[in-house]
Automatic annotation (TrEMBL):
Residue stretches making up the ABC transporter domain: 2-238
Annotated GO MF terms: ATP binding
Species lineage: Bacteria, Bacillati, Actinomycetota, Actinomycetes, Micromonosporales
Species per Swiss-Prot/TrEMBL record: Dactylosporangium salmoneum
Keywords: Amino-acid transport, ATP-binding, Nucleotide-binding, Transport
Protein name (Swiss-Prot/TrEMBL): ABC transporter ATP-binding protein
Alphabetical list of Pfam families matching this protein: ABC_tran
Heme in keyword set: no
PROSITE patterns per record: ABC_TRANSPORTER_1 (PS00211), ABC_TRANSPORTER_2 (PS50893)
């Protein structure tokens, strides 16, 4: 289980952005993390993947643990090696490198098995196989999202953290990304899905959290969140 307990995060030593967050991603499950812009979702993912330091953030209190062992003081590569891999918001791929080069970079933390995983990625994302020699910068938004997901999966993670994978994608593409999340999860990888698209996230997740101003305000099974009046009004646009 990947677990966040009473986590407080500050930026630049002064700005308290997470104010005592508790969250759990059990092995093999899909968990959704919802919340308005600025609620602290990306900050939470940075804390899980060791990337706070790059952004002048620190864990002021609380912990992130993986199977009971603290990981919040580890460097990003060490966290990837332990099985937690992130796709950052904006699907940062290396624009000048080819699709295949990008995928291979995702395997830099492993000693063996990369060739088999690459073959598996091409099964999961046939479009990446077709475009394996193309420069990543020329891919469509949806293809870049797949490449970013494929690259993160190349490390063979037990936990995949996705930051707004549907952002800016056409509805058909959103559906495809959704199906891929289900498939990745079926193959055994747990997913923490940060989404503005609450309908999409709650349709695949078993459990969901809502973050507001750095605090968890709702922590419920996805089906209950889908039925919650506030969620329906604020996140699903229902009246
Ligand atoms: P969004 O959907 O807009 O990405 P979010 O829920 O992911 O929102 P965060 O990006 O975690 O929220 O931001 C939470 C708060 O922390 C915001 O007020 C933001 O301005 C602030 N923040 C984020 N990164 C930094 C940073 N490097 N330095 C200072 N403040 C930051």
């Amino acid at each position: 289980m990947l677990r966040v307990q009473n986590l407080e995060v500050v930026y630049d030593d002064v700005m308290l952005v997470l104010r005592g967050v508790d969250l759990a991603v059990p092995e093999g499950r899909i968990v959704a993390l919802l919340g308005a812009n600025g609620a602290g979702k990306t900050t939470l993912l940075r804390a899980l993947s060791g990337l706070l330091g790059v952004h002048h953030g620190t864990v002021a209190r609380g912990s992130v643990t993986l199977a009971g062992a603290p990981i919040h003081r580890l460097r990003p590569a060490a966290i990837v090696r332990r099985g937690v891999s992130q796709v950052m918001e904006g699907r940062r791929t290396f624009a000048e490198l080819t699709v295949e080069e990008n995928l291979r970079l995702g395997a830099h933390t492993r000693r063996r098995g990369a060739a088999d995983t690459l073959a598996r990625m091409y099964e999961l994302f046939p479009v990446l196989k077709q475009r394996r020699g193309a420069v990543a910068g020329y891919l469509s938004g949806g293809e870049q999202q797949m490449l970013a997901m494929g690259r993160a999966l190349m490390s063979g993670p037990a936990y995949l953290l996705l930051d707004e994978p549907s952002l800016g994608l056409a509805p058909r593409m959103v559906e495809q990304v959704r199906d891929l999340i289900v498939e990745i999860n079926r193959a055994g990888t747990a997913v923490l899905l940060v989404e503005q698209n609450a309908a999409m996230a709650l349709s695949v997740a078993e459990h969901g959290y809502v973050l507001e101003n750095g605090r968890v305000v709702l922590d419920k099974p996805a089906a209950e969140l889908l039925a919650d009046d506030d969620i329906r009004e604020f996140y699903l646009g229902a009246h």
